[in-house]
Amino acid sequence: MSDNTNVTRKPETPASEMALLPPVDVIEDAGGITLYADLPGVPKDKLNLQIEGDTLTIEGEVSLEVPEGMESSHAEVNLPRYRRMFTLSKELDANKVAAEFNQGALKLRIPKAEHAQPRKIEIAVM
Amino acid sequence: MFYRSVFPRDLLSELDRLQREMQQAYEFSPSIRGIARGGFPAMNVGNTPRSVEIYAFAPGIDPAAIDVQLEKGVLTITGERASLMPPKEANATVHIDERFSGRFRRVVTLPDDADPNGVSAKYRDGVLHVSVQRRQAAQPRRISIE
User: What PROSITE patterns does this protein map onto (chain A) (predicted)?
Assistant: First the structure.
């Protein structure tokens, strides 16, 4: 196994800056937000989820099994990294985020804070 | 393209990327079937003297639901990825819907020396890796001089 990915690094931007934008689905229901992201080729230990302030960052390093001496002839996944950031709104509870990562597919569940949950307001009849 | 690059605050390199992608789109036309960019799953192809390596980026799929076939030098990858979208009657809002769902099919033409009996496929971290051996005769050989 090796860390090599069959990509050519582009010299004009520092390597740490460049990343692919993974496709996501974001679905909101009454209890919170569910986010799915496609990060194929990222092993569990190379996935990095971070919440800082109100910014959620999803980052992953691609690690493919590449035989020695392989020359890439066609690359659609042409950078060894994925990155995407989201701004969370105030009613989301960043402390209760649950994450599942299975075969390159990430599922994040961000619940709404207790006070932001929908409530039915009773109308008192006078 | 399925996976776009992001270069924050760097318009010049973004333009450069566009130019490069256009160039690649024209330069890369190896066969009549070609390899169309931007489909699902995204694909990388590489060569070694002994094998052809194909990587299909198909995350979150049961490997049993992926079908890999090799016929007359054409490798076909088909399968289906279930939609995770909430049913219509659910009280949910879809804010972003970018991930692929449904049936997929991608085709790669293999070089003439690909050996249909020497194919192996693995699925790991959401990537299907198909390795096709090249026939012995095609591998570089040192010819001894008598």
Answer: SHSP
